[in-house]
Design a protein that fits this description.
Number of strands: 3
Strand order of the largest sheet: 1-2-3
Structural class: mainly alpha
Number of helices: 14
CATH superfamily of the largest domain: Intergrase catalytic core
Oligomer: single chain
Order of helices and strands: HHHHHHHEEEHHHHHHH
Largest sheet: 3 strands, antiparallel
Helix content: 55-70%
CATH architecture of the largest domain: Orthogonal Bundle
CATH topology of the largest domain: hpI Integrase, Chain A
Distance between the termini: 63 Å
Number of domains: 2
Shape: globular
Length: about 300
């Protein structure tokens, strides 16, 4: 089964163009499941025969995860990993019957996205020190995040050629290699313009051809990477915001919520965020409804009567 998992992960990477995060998550989920099955069938994980696995075995594993108190969202992802893996095995003739067929995905608990207030974000952006090229890049990254709502994986994938300052827009490559064009605000254009004049100062001994194409660079002179950007964003959010989650995704949530609160059509926000369907974007309407409820309770004389 171990060999099948490796083949499946290569399939995800090469044929499905899955993100590194998805591949790592699915790999961990499948290895965990394989180790559970090995115990059930009293064999070594590397000797496990995928043909032995039944629907009951899968349900026993999911039941154990539930008893351990694992969140429904995490269990749902593991179910998705199993369904995808066994579908792959079935289609390629490695198994004669798909034990994960019609496996029900646990309904996720709905949680409202955490957001940073416009005031906190404005203060944070205005106080980033830009007297060094590294500080200038930090400001540019934060401006792009809040000005466009793109994902951190999309940001680190940006090349210089993806930026059109004259037209005030960037071309973003999202999930499934789908591209979308997003407008840039004047402040973002100005900061990027200033940064691009000094960007080559970030070059180092490890700067390769890919880094020379990249819009943003890490401290070692190579293309910036997800973990480094997350660390930088967390550092600034800790200084200027009380939000419990401090990550680029919080700024993405804030972008969408602030746009919606100021009258933007949810279908337009969907295009900005690169969501495949409107259902993924509609979670932001719940945030706005909560805000309306709070305003109503504070302002209407009969709200609490």
């Amino acid at each position: 089964m171990n060999t099948l998992i490796e083949k499946y992960l290569r399939y995800l990477q090469v044929e499905r163009n899955a993100s590194p995060h998805t591949i790592t998550s699915y790999k961990n989920d499948l290895i965990s499941f394989m180790e559970f099955c090995a115990v059930q069938y009293d064999t070594a994980p590397e000797d496990l025969d995928v043909q032995l696995i039944t629907r009951l075995t899968i349900r026993l594993w999911l039941g154990e995860l539930s008893e351990q108190g694992l969140a429904k969202s995490s269990i749902a992802r593991k179910v998705a990993a199993l369904r995808s893996f066994f579908k792959y095995c079935f289609k390629r003739g490695h198994i004669h019957k798909n034990p994960a067929h019609l496996l029900v995905v646990p309904k996720k608990d709905r949680t409202l996205p955490k957001t940073v207030t416009p005031g906190e974000l404005t203060e944070m952006l205005d106080k980033v020190e830009t007297d060094t090229v590294r500080g200038l890049q930090d400001r540019a990254i934060l401006e792009v995040f809040y000005g466009t709502g793109i994902r951190v994986s999309e940001l680190v994938g940006l090349d210089i050629t993806d930026v059109d300052l004259r037209s005030g827009q960037i071309t973003v490559t999202g999930k499934g290699n789908k591209q979308r064009i997003i407008p840039l605000g004047k402040t973002c254009v100005d900061i990027l313009s200033e940064f691009l004049k000094k960007r080559t100062e970030l070059y180092g001994e490890r700067t390769d051809s890919d880094a020379r194409r990249a819009l943003f660079l890490a401290a070692n002179g190579q293309r910036n990477y997800v973990r480094g950007v997350r660390y930088m964003v967390e550092k600034y959010l800790k200084q200027y915001s009380e939000v419990t989650q401090k990550s680029p995704h919080v700024i993405r949530h804030s972008f969408a919520t602030h746009m919606l609160n100021n009258g933007a059509d949810i279908r337009i926000i969907k295009e900005f965020l690169g969501h495949a369907n409107l259902a993924a974007t509609q979670v932001y309407t719940h945030t706005s409804v909560e805000r309306l409820k709070n305003v109503y309770e504070q302002a209407h004389p009969r709200a609490k009567s």
